[in-house]
Amino acid sequence: RMLEMGVQSGGSINMWKHYFGDALEFHGFDINPECKVFEDLSRNIHVHIGSQDSEVDLEKLAALGPFDIILDDAAHISPLLIKAFDVLYSAVQPDGVY
């Protein structure tokens, strides 16, 4: 199970599915509602819309865990990176990677 924060144009979704295999349960998170177009439940691709600046949104993501991998490629702003880490790190599997 993987969570990637920052879906943008959706280009990395297929890369991760190719690299990890079709069994990968992919969760993407983006502030742009238009990113929902990349969701494909038949391929186990879930896209969640919200803000990295919202602790409520981050806690909703954490509740979807645990994740094997969390990749933060969203806001690229240090205080938001720290906020996301503080909320989401507990949603990483013990042998997972943030």
Question: How would you describe this structure to a colleague?
Answer:
The chain contains 3 helices and 5 strands; from the N terminus they run βαββαβαβ. The chain has 98 residues and is an alpha/beta fold. α2 (55-63) runs parallel beside α3 (78-88).
Question: What tags apply to this protein structure?
Answer:
alpha/beta; 98 residues
Q: How many beta strands in the DSSP annotation?
A: 5
Q: Give the strand content.
A: 25-35%
Q: Ends: how far apart?
A: 12 Å
List segments where confidence is low: pLDDT < 50 over at least 5 consecutive residues.
none
Tally of DSSP helical segments: 3
**Biggest beta sheet attributes:** 5 strands, parallel
Average pLDDT reading: 96
DSSP helix fraction: 25-40%
Which strands sit side by side, in order, in the main sheet? 3-2-1-4-5
The geometry reads as globular
Order of helices and strands: EHEEHEHE
Q: What class, by secondary structure content?
A: alpha/beta
> What is the radius of gyration?
12 Å
Quick gist of this model?
The chain has helices spanning 11-20, 55-63, 78-88; strands at residues 2-5, 26-30, 45-49, 67-72, 92-97.
